[in-house]
Amino acid sequence: MRAAVLRAYREDLAIETVADPVCEADGVVVRVLACGVCRSDWHGWVGEHPRVKPGAIPGHEYCGEVVEVGPLARWSVGDRIIAPFILACGACPDCQSGNSNICKTQRVPGFGEPGAYAEYISVPHAHNLARLPDGMTPVLAAGLGCRVTTAWHALTGRAAIQAGEWLAVHGTGGIGLSALLLGRALGARVVVVDVVPEKLAHAVALGAEAAFDAREGDVAARIVEATGGGAHVSIEALGIEATANASIECLRALGRHVQVGLPVGHTARMEINMNAVYIKQLALYGTRGMPAWKYPRLLDMITRGAVDMSPLIARTVPLSGASHELRAFDGPMPPGVAVIDDLTR
């Protein structure tokens, strides 16, 4: 099969012919119909993710068609599926308690497992998969990827955001835009922060009540003023020290900060304003992924039109265009995300 392979950090992915994947007993083999390009892929491409080594096939935001089924999997050839990036075992105490996204034996395509920048992917633990709803395109489904599911769990499973509360979103990339769209659908009032004027204007067009350029003054103080005392919930969607502190400092008393951006490599350790946490008695949450059982409610909101996630998709590219998209993460990005929709070229 055709696949994009990481041969050296920060070098173009090599488009190669590699062996077809092998179907595991509790899994399926999927023909990839579309795969999102994610900042997490960039962390691996630059060499900052400890589980991504040369020889890896990236890609964890995929949608596809089942072409082979293991004897223990409850799917059929021809089924169209969406996959969470965390493939949990389903049997451990964490999985049984509903917290499959912290499964200690989880497997993650693209991070220690062959990913979906390829024509086919082997998916173990196929009980994690969700059926692609009728009428949802593979490109949109792949665009949901880890960004929409992670934002959904951050808002509903961690911060428990309520209608009428103020939500601040720091960084309007894929996760930030997802948090904006989902937050509004849940009844929150949303303000956003970025350093790219085009992205700020895009967020306002999608319903943000205010947009702040982080380069212009004390953004936390401006959010406190605009929201009449501070945000109730703040999402950090970049994984860097400056935005993590701005997220904490923009909150009102008893506010909830959710760390969604990935702090890894040179950002793994940060100097954080713990005095603000103490004085305002804040709650700080980490979050990663989403338990697979939460897919139905999210997909139902999208399919019945309660939220339109299509503004998230900015462009589609062939597999050979993935390297260009990864390089773009080195600088300010335009609004929206890229999805690979042709795995044959």
From TrEMBL:
Organism placement in taxonomy: Bacteria, Pseudomonadati, Pseudomonadota, Alphaproteobacteria, Rhodobacterales
Top-level division of the source organism's lineage: Bacteria
Keywords assigned: Metal-binding, Oxidoreductase, Zinc
Domain Enoyl reductase (ER): 8-340
Keyword Metal-binding annotated: yes
Name of the featured protein: Alcohol dehydrogenase
Transmembrane segment boundaries: none
MF terms (GO), sorted A to Z: oxidoreductase activity, acting on the CH-OH group of donors, NAD or NADP as acceptor; zinc ion binding
Family: Belongs to the zinc-containing alcohol dehydrogenase family.
Cofactors named for this entry: Zn(2+)
Organism of provenance: Paragemmobacter aquarius
